[in-house]
Specification:
heterodimer, A: 1004 residues, alpha/beta, 6-stranded mixed β-barrel, 38 strands, globular, B: 197 residues, mainly alpha, 41% helix
Chain lengths: 1004, 197
C-alpha cells in the first residue's frame, strides 16, 4: 500500500503545481505513487543460490525447545522470512508448532544486543570490541581468578562437547540446566527398569492413551512428534479411533483433547496408576510373567483405597483399568503437574508399573533412543550452594536464564552476586545477563553453524541462513579464540573457527560410516542432518527397585486453603517465548488470554470466595506473593488455583519486561532436591478490590445451540450419520422441516441466477474452486496454524490495549467452546474450531461493499482488494463469522519495530491504516503455484498449493485443494459423512467443510 | 492519472530536442521491431545527460549501445526475468565480466567505464536510480509475461530501450488502465486478485 499520509512527499495538488512550473522529467515526479527517489543497489557478486523473487530454502534445526524438530528456513533476497517444518525430518515431518515458528522473532528480536558489552566502574554498560571482550574473558578464565563455573542450557552436540572439554581444561565445573527437564521420569526409570534414560513413546500405535498430567500436546518432551502420533491414533478413520483419558487436577490443552477428564486431587496420580495396575493384575495374569511378582506390592492399592485419596470413584478406576488393559497396545504417560510435585518419582514409577503390567513396555514405550538432556536441578542447586559460599570465581552462563527460571526463594540472585566475574552469552539482555559483568551476545541459531544430537541416530545440523542481524559472535568462536589467547594447555583448541571444528567432527562421523567426508557433509547439510534408523530397543525387565513402588500422599507446604499449581503454557513455555509478539498475541489455547498472566479458579471456588473474573487476586504462599486477574475456569479442580509460568520478567526486552506476574515467586526454592517441584505449596487467596479487564479473545465460551463446533459419539459416527442426524439421534427429536415449497423455489431460483452470472466475462470457462476441509477429530487447538498465518501474511500484532478493544487481527483464530460441566457430575468437554474466512459462495460481505473491494474471484475466493478498500467496514458488519479485521490504526508502523520488519513476506502487501483485511486462502501461494505451472506448461496438480495453516498443522487436520478437481484430496474429504458447514442455515454456502469431532466415550 | 501521463508525454514532446530520443510511447513500440538492425548509437558524453530524458544515473550507462548497437540480449543482464517475479539487476561482477577487457571506444565512454572499474575495485555497488516502481499493493510477475509474450516483449512496458541513451519512463506502470488494456486485448484474466493480494 502507498503510505497513508502525504506528509513526507508530494500530494496530488502539489504534483500538478510542480509539473506545471517545471515541466516534469525528474525521477521524483515521474510516478503516481513514487514520491521519493528509490535506488536499485546491485549485488557485487551474484549469489549462486539466491534469485530475486524466488525463495531459497535452507535446512536447519529448531532450538526453541529440546525436541529438536527439523526446519526449512524460507529466505528471500538474503533474509529469513518464515520457518517451516522439514518434511524429511523423523520428528516433525514438515510441520512445526507455534513456538518453533516464532523462533524467527528471536532472530529479529528488537531486544537483541548490537555487540559485546561490559559493566563499567559506574555500573553502566559500555560497548566493547570483540577483541577487547575476548581478551577480558581470557584474562579472567585463564588468569587463575578462581574456580570457573559454566551454566548452559540443555542439548547435546558438537558445541556442548566443546564447552564441556573447554570447561574441563580450565578446571571448571559445567552444569547443564533446563527447566522441566524430566528428572523424576529418569529417576523412576532407574528405579523400575534400571535404565537411566528417558523413553520415547509411540502414540500412533496406541489404542488407549492415559495421560497422568503429561501435557504431551504442548510442553512435554517432543510436542510436535507426539501430536502427530496422537492425531494418527485419535483421529477418526473408518470407524476406528483410540481413546484418550486425562488424569490430573487441571484440564490442560492435552486434557481438553481427552475423551474423558478425571480431576484427581493434586499429587495423587501415583495411587490411580497403582490401583489400575492392581485391577489389571487381579483380573488376569501379568502379560510379562514377572509382573505377577508385583501382586503383593500392589495389594494395598485397591480401587477403593485409591478412591479415598484421589477423588475418583472406585468404579471409574476399575473401568479405566479394564479399558486400558483390553486395548492393545495402550499407553500411559506421566509428566506435567504429575511430574512436578514432591512425590513425582513415585508417580512416574507407578505409571511405569502400569505400562509394564499392561504389556506396553517395548511396544509403545521404548528405551534406548532418547539421549539424556540435562544434569537436572540437583546439579544447579549444588552449584548455587558453592556460589553462595563464595567458592566460584567466574561464572559463564550460556543459553540459560537461571535468574528467571529458579524461584526467588532459592536465593540465587544473592549467590550469583557473590561471584566476582559473571559472563553471559545471551543475545537479549535477560535477567541473568543484566546481572553479569560481561555480555558476549551469541549468534542466533539461524545465523551460525551448529548441530544437535536429538536422539540416537538423529543429528540435526544448523547453518547460517543469512548474514548476522547484529554484531554478535558465535559462542563456539568465542571459546576457541579465548582458548588460543590463553595458550598453554588450552592451545589444543586449535580450530580457527567453530565452523572448522564442526566440520572436523562431521568428517569423523563420515569416517565412522566409511563415507566420503565432503559428500557426507553436503548431503547432511541439504537434508538437515543425519537421520538414521534408531537402534533396536533393549529388552526391558523389572529391576529390583520395582518392588519399592508406593504412594505416600501429596507433600505440600504452607497453610492456605488452596493448592497452587504452576504450569508452563504452550506459548511461553518456560518464559523464553515472552519476548516474541507472535506468542504473546496468539491466545493461550485453554483460556484464550493474550498478553497477560492470570490466576485460574474453579467457578465454585470463586463463588465461595466471592471473586469475579478480572478481579485482581493476591496469592500468598510461605515463599512469596503474586497478584494477577482471576479467570474462572471449570477445568481446574475445586480447591486448586492455577497460574501460568513464563510471565513476570524483569528484563528480557520490551515485550517481556514487566508483563504479568511470575508464578515462580510463590514456590519453594527446592534447596537440596534433585528436581524443582512446581506443585508444592498451599496458598491463601486475598482479594485486592482491584480490577483488570482480561484481554481474552473468546466471545462466549458456550455455543448457545448454534452448531458451530459439532461432535458425535463413536457409535453414531460408525453408523455413518451426518452431524445433524447424529444430533437428532442423540436428542431423540426429528429434523424440523423449514423448507416450504416457496422457499425451495426461491433457493433454486437463486442458484440458477448465480449460475447465469458465472457465465459472464471473467467468470466464464473452467476455473478451480478452492476449498478447505478441517477435521475437528484431529484438530487439537494447538494454535500452530495461527502463528503460521501471522508469519505468512504479515499480520500485525496489535498489543494488549487493542486486544481489549477486540481488535486483534488474527485472520485465523481457534475458537474454543465448552460443553457440559454446568451440573455437578456432568463431564466438561472442550471443542476447538479453527475459524477463518469461509470464502462463502454466497458471501454476505460482497454485496454491501460500496467500492467492490470485497468481491468473488472466478476461482471461488472471497477476495479483498486493499487498494480499493475505503474502510466503511460494512463487510465486517455483515459477516456472520466475524472473520474480517480492520486496521483501526497504522498497525503496520507499530507492529514491526526494527529489525522485526525483516520478517515481512515480500509476496504479501503490508496493509495500511483504514483497510479491511482477512484470510485470503494464501492467494499469493495459489498465484505462485499457478505461475510455476504455467512456466512448466502443465496444469496445476493437487497438492501444488498448500496454505500456511495446512502446512504447519502437526495433526494434519487441514486439507486444502480444488473442489472442482475430482481427484483432489480436499474434494474427497469434503464428501465425508461427518462434514458440515458452520452456520449452515444462513445459506451463505461456505467453502470450508468441517468434519465433526468424534467422542470416544464409554456408554453408561 | 491517465490524464497526467498524457500531460507528461506532451511536455516531453515539447522538450524533446536531444538526438533521436524517442518522442512518445507508442512510436517507441512501433519502431522497435522494424529498425533495430541498423542502429548505431550516437556519440554522447556525460555532459549531455542533463538534456536527455530520464533521471541522471551515477554512471551514464547506455542501453542504446549495449542492447541497441551490440544487440546484447536483455536477459544477459536481467537474468531472472524469465524465471522469477523480479527481473534481476546485474551484479557488478556481470558488468566487469566484459569491462575487465572492454575499456571504451571514445573518451566519454572511457570515463564512464573508469567509474565502474573504480567502484568495482573498491567493492562499492553502483546505486542506480530506480525508474519503474510498481506500487507495493500490486504484484507483477515478470516471468509469466515473458513466457506469454516472448523474450523480447520487454519493450511492451519499458519502451524501446535499444534507442534510449538514458532510460526514462515510457509508460506509467502504476496506471492500472495500462495493464487492463493489454489484458482485455488478449482476453486474459482481469480478476483483481490476480495482481492485488
Amino acid at each position: 500500500m502507498a503510505d497513508d499520509t502525504p506528509s513526507n512527499g508530494i500530494n496530488r495538488r502539489k504534483f500538478l503545481t510542480v509539473l506545471g512550473v517545471a515541466g516534469g522529467g525528474t525521477a521524483a515526479l515521474s510516478g503516481c505513487s513514487t514520491d521519493r527517489v528509490q535506488k536499485l543497489v546491485p549485488y557485487l557478486v551474484q549469489s549462486e543460490d539466491q534469485v530475486p523473487g524466488i525463495p531459497t530454502v535452507y535446512a536447519s534445526t529448531c532450538t526453541e525447545c529440546a525436541a529438536g524438530c527439523g526446519l526449512h528456513v524460507r529466505t528471500r533476497e538474503g533474509r529469513a522470512i518464515k520457518l517451516e517444518g522439514n518434511p524429511a525430518h523423523p520428528i516433525n515431518a514438515g510441520t512445526l508448532c507455534a513456538r518453533g515458528q516464532a523462533g524467527l522473532q528471536g532472530l529479529y528480536n528488537p531486544g537483541r544486543l548490537s555487540g559485546p558489552m561490559a559493566r563499567g566502574a559506574d555500573g553502566s554498560w559500555q560497548e566493547l570490541t570483540w577483541e577487547d571482550a575476548i581478551a577480558r574473558l581470557a584474562e579472567r578464565v585463564g588468569g587463575g581468578a578462581g574456580r570457573l563455573a559454566v551454566i548452559s542450557g540443555a542439548g547435546e552436540g558438537t558445541f556442548a562437547d566443546l564447552l564441556a572439554e573447554w570447561t574441563a581444561a580450565l578446571g571448571g565445573r559445567l552444569v547443564r540446566y533446563e527447566p522441566f527437564d524430566h528428572e523424576p521420569l529418569r529417576a523412576a526409570n532407574r528405579q523400575v527398569f534400571g535404565l537411566d534414560q528417558l523413553p520415547s513413546h509411540d502414540f500412533a500405535r496406541a489404542r488407549h492413551i492415559v495421560s497422568f498430567g503429561a501435557d504431551f500436546l504442548e510442553t512435554w518432551l517432543a510436542p510436535v512428534e507426539q501430536q502427530r502420533g496422537f492425531a494418527a491414533a485419535h483421529g477418526y478413520r473408518d470407524g476406528e479411533m483410540a481413546k484418550h483419558v486425562y488424569v490430573g487436577p487441571r484440564m490442560s490443552l492435552t486434557g481438553m483433547n481427552a475423551d474423558e477428564w478425571h480431576a484427581s486431587a493434586p499429587g495423587t496420580e501415583a495411587v490411580v496408576a497403582l490401583a489400575m495396575a492392581h485391577v489389571i493384575l487381579a483380573e488376569r495374569s501379568g502379560a510379562p510373567s514377572d509382573a505377577n511378582a508385583l501382586r503383593g506390592v500392589l495389594a494395598p492399592y485397591t480401587p477403593e483405597m485409591a478412591a479415598g485419596e484421589c477423588g475418583l470413584s472406585a468404579d471409574a478406576i476399575r473401568l479405566l483399568a479394564r479399558e486400558f488393559a483390553s486395548a492393545r497396545p495402550s499407553l500411559a504417560v506421566t509428566g506435567g503437574v504429575a511430574m512436578q510435585h514432591r512425590g513425582a518419582v513415585e508417580a512416574c514409577a507407578a505409571v511405569n508399573i502400569l505400562n509394564y503390567v499392561a504389556g506396553n513396555v517395548g511396544e509403545t514405550v521404548r528405551f534406548g533412543s532418547r539421549l539424556p538432556a540435562a544434569d537436572g536441578y540437583g546439579a544447579l542447586d549444588g552449584l548455587i550452594a558453592t556460589m553462595a559460599a563464595g567458592e566460584v570465581g567466574v561464572v559463564l552462563v550460556h543459553e540459560a536464564n537461571p535468574l528467571y527460571a529458579v524461584p526467588k526463594a532459592r536465593g540465587l540472585a544473592d549467590a550469583f552476586a557473590k561471584v566476582p566475574f559473571k559472563v553471559s552469552t545471551a543475545s537479549v539482555l535477560d535477567e541473568t545477563a543484566a546481572a553479569c559483568d560481561l555480555v558476549l551476545p551469541n549468534h542466533h541459531a539461524l545465523e551460525r553453524w551448529d548441530d544437535r544430537r536429538i536422539r540416537a541416530g538423529v543429528v540435526g545440523l544448523m547453518q547460517p541462513v543469512m548474514e548476522p542481524v547484529m554484531g554478535s559472535m558465535p559462542t563456539g568462536d568465542v571459546l576457541l579464540k579465548t582458548a588460543q589467547k590463553i595458550g598453554g594447555v588450552m592451545a589444543r583448541f586449535a580450530a580457527p573457527t567453530f565452523e572448522a571444528h564442526l566440520k572436523a567432527a562431521w568428517a569423523e562421523l563420515a569416517r565412522q560410516r566409511s563415507a566420503s567426508a565432503p559428500v557426507f557433509w553436503m548431503e547432511a547439510l541439504q537434508r538437515g542432518g543425519l537421520y538414521e534408523a534408531p537402534p533396536a530397543p533393549p529388552g526391558v525387565r523389572l529391576a529390583a527397585g520395582a518392588e519399592r513402588v508406593g504412594y505416600t500422599g501429596p507433600d505440600l507446604d504452607g497453610e492456605g486453603a488452596l493448592v497452587f499449581l504452576a504450569y508452563p503454557t504452550s506459548m511461553l513455555f518456560d518464559g523464553r517465548g515472552a519476548n516474541r509478539p507472535w506468542l504473546l498475541e496468539n491466545p493461550d489455547p485453554v483460556t484464550k488470554i493474550t498478553w497477560q498472566s492470570w490466576v485460574e479458579l474453579h467457578p465454585d471456588t470463586a463463588k465461595d470466595l466471592d471473586v469475579r473474573e478480572g478481579e485482581i487476586v493476591r496469592l500468598v504462599s510461605p515463599h512469596g506473593t503474586l497478584e494477577a486477574p482471576a479467570y474462572l475456569y471449570a477445568g481446574v479442580r475445586t480447591g486448586v488455583v492455577a497460574a501460568p509460568l513464563g510471565y513476570g520478567h524483569t528484563e528480557y526486552g520490551q515485550y517481556a519486561k514487566g508483563r504479568g506476574a511470575n508464578a515462580l515467586d510463590l514456590l519453594d526454592g527446592g534447596a537440596g532436591r534433585a528436581f524443582l517441584p512446581y506443585l508444592s505449596t498451599r496458598v491463601r487467596l486475598e482479594r485486592t478490590r482491584g480490577y483488570q479487564k482480561v484481554a481474552k479473545t473468546e466471545g462466549n465460551p458456550r455455543q448457545l445451540g448454534r452448531h458451530i463446533a459439532e461432535a458425535m459419539s463413536l457409535p453414531l459416527a460408525r453408523q455413518g450419520l451426518d452431524p445433524r442426524q447424529a444430533h437428532y439421534a442423540e436428542t431423540g427429536g426429528t429434523p424440523h422441516e423449514i423448507n416450504t415449497e416457496r422457499e425451495l423455489e426461491a433457493i433454486a431460483g437463486f442458484a440458477a441466477a448465480q449460475q447465469a452470472a458465472t457465465k459472464l466475462g471473467n467468470y466464464a470457462g473452467e476455473h478451480p474452486r478452492w476449498g478447505m476441509v478441517i477435521d475437528l477429530a484431529r484438530c487439537t487447538g494447538c494454535s500452530s496454524c495461527v502463528t503460521a498465518c501471522y508469519a505468512e501474511n504479515n499480520i500485525p500484532t496489535v498489543g494488549e490495549d487493542e486486544v481489549l478493544r477486540g481488535r486483534e487481527m488474527s485472520w485465523l483464530r481457534i475458537e474454543r467452546y465448552f460443553e457440559g460441566g454446568e451440573e455437578p457430575g456432568e463431564p466438561l468437554e472442550a471443542r476447538f474450531v479453527p475459524m477463518l474466512c469461509q470464502h462463502c459462495g454466497n458471501a454476505p460481505c460482497e454485496p454491501v461493499c460500496p467500492v467492490y473491494a470485497a468481491y468473488h474471484t472466478p476461482d471461488g475466493l472471497n477476495a479483498q482488494v486493499y487498494n480499493r478498500c475505503v474502510g466503511t467496514r460494512y463487510c465486517s458488519n455483515n459477516c456472520p463469522y466475524k472473520v474480517r479485521y480492520f486496521n483501526w490504526h497504522a498497525y503496520n508502523k507499530t507492529a514491526f519495530p526494527e529489525p522485526l520488519h525483516l520478517q515481512l513476506n515480500p509476496d504479501v502487501t503490508v496493509r495500511a491504516r483504514g483497510v479491511m483485511e482477512k484470510c485470503t486462502f494464501c492467494v499469493q501461494r495459489i498465484r505462485g503455484a499457478q505461475h510455476q505451472a504455467r512456466l512448466e506448461d502443465r496444469p496445476l496438480a493437487d497438492g501444488d498449493v498448500v496454505t500456511a495453516c495446512a502446512q504447519a498443522c502437526p495433526s494434519g487436520a487441514i486439507v486444502f485443494g480444488d473442489l472442482n478437481d475430482p481427484a483432489s484430496r480436499a474434494r474427497a474429504a469434503a464428501a465425508d459423512h461427518r462434514g458440515y458447514h458452520a452456520l449452515e442455515d444462513l445459506n451463505v454456502r461456505p467453502v470450508i467443510t468441517y468434519l465433526a469431532k468424534v467422542q470416544h466415550r464409554t456408554e453408561a | 492519472m491517465r490524464k497526467l501521463a498524457l500531460l507528461a508525454g506532451g511536455t516531453a514532446l515539447l522538450l524533446a530536442g536531444v538526438g533521436w530520443a524517442v518522442r512518445d510511447a507508442s512510436s517507441a513500440v512501433q519502431t522497435s521491431a522494424a529498425g533495430c538492425d541498423s542502429l548505431t548509437a550516437p556519440t554522447l558524453a556525460a555532459g549531455d545527460t542533463a538534456r536527455l530524458r530520464g533521471p541522471r544515473q551515477p554512471i551514464f550507462f547506455r542501453h542504446d549501445i549495449h542492447a541497441g548497437q551490440y544487440k546484447i540480449q536483455c536477459q544477459y543482464c536481467h537474468y531472472s526475468v524469465a524465471v522469477a517475479t523480479e527481473p534481476g539487476i546485474p551484479s557488478m561482477q556481470t558488468c566487469m565480466g566484459c569491462h575487465l577487457v572492454i575499456g571504451g571506444a571514445d573518451s566519454a565512454s572511457k570515463a564512464e567505464i573508469r567509474k565502474l572499474r573504480e567502484a568495482s575495485a573498491q567493492q562499492q555497488p553502483i546505486e542506480w536510480v530506480r525508474i519503474h516502481y510498481l506500487a507495493r499493493h500490486a504484484h507483477f510477475p515478470h516471468m509469466v509475461h515473458i513466457k506469454a509474450l516472448g523474450p523480447t516483449a520487454c519493450a511492451t512496458c519499458h519502451g524501446d530501450v535499444t534507442r534510449m541513451p538514458q532510460v526514462f519512463k515510457v509508460n506509467n506502470v502504476n496506471n492500472m488502465g495500462w495493464c487492463i488494456d493489454c489484458h482485455l486485448e488478449r482476453t486474459v484474466s482481469r480478476d483483481c486478485s490476480v495482481c492485488h493480494y
